[in-house]
Structures are given as C-alpha cells and as structure tokens.
Amino acid sequence: ARNLGNLERHVASASSRGISRYIVRKSGRKEEAEQQCSQRLGRVPYAEQLQSNLTSTLRRCIPLAIRLISDSTTT
C-alpha cells in the first residue's frame, strides 16, 4: 500500500508538471500556469481532458506497477 501511495504521488506530480507546461504553451503566461497548478487537480482548464487521459493510462499502468512492486519485494 505504501508503494502504491508513492506511485500516486509521482503520477500527481507528473500530471501537475504536464498541465503547467500545457497552460504555458496555450496561454504563453507562466504566471497563469503557476497559479492554476498550485491548486490540486480539479476544475482547472484542460483538467477534464487530462483526467480522462490519465484515468485510461492508470488503468493500464497500475496493474503492471503493482506486479513489478510485488515482484521486487518477493526477490
């Protein structure tokens, strides 16, 4: 469970960085990206699309991550 929590934190951190870069590209304003991304993921611009993409990615990746974690703890 602890390793899954670490995975969730890494995903959230990567997602926040991705949103920040996307907002900078779309708006050209770093301040706006920093303001949007200082909040938790929620109803920020583009979050719905990102959440949809992230959800499908997590559905594919989490079983693999759990398998890798359990393999590494049994060896």
How many distinct helices?
3
* Largest pleated sheet: none
Distance between the termini: 18 Å
> Order of SSEs, N→C?
HHH
Overall morphology? elongated
Mean pLDDT: 64
Could you list the spans in which at least 5 consecutive residues all have pLDDT below 50? none
Structural class: mainly alpha
**Mind telling me the C-alpha Rg?**
15 Å
What is the β-strand count?
0
Helix proportion: over 70%
Number of domains: 1
Strand content: under 5%
Q: How would you explain this protein's 3D organization?
A:
With 75 residues, this protein is mainly alpha-helical. The chain has one domain. The chain has 3 helices and no strands. It has helices at residues 2-27, 30-37, 47-74. α1 packs antiparallel against α3 (47-74). The radius of gyration is 15 Å and the shape is elongated. The model has no long low-confidence stretch (mean pLDDT 64).
Lay out the secondary structure.
Blueprint: H1 2-27, H2 30-37, H3 47-74
Keywords:
75 residues; mainly alpha
Q: What does this entry show, briefly?
A:
Helices cover 83% and strands 0% of the residues. The chain is built from three helices and no strands.
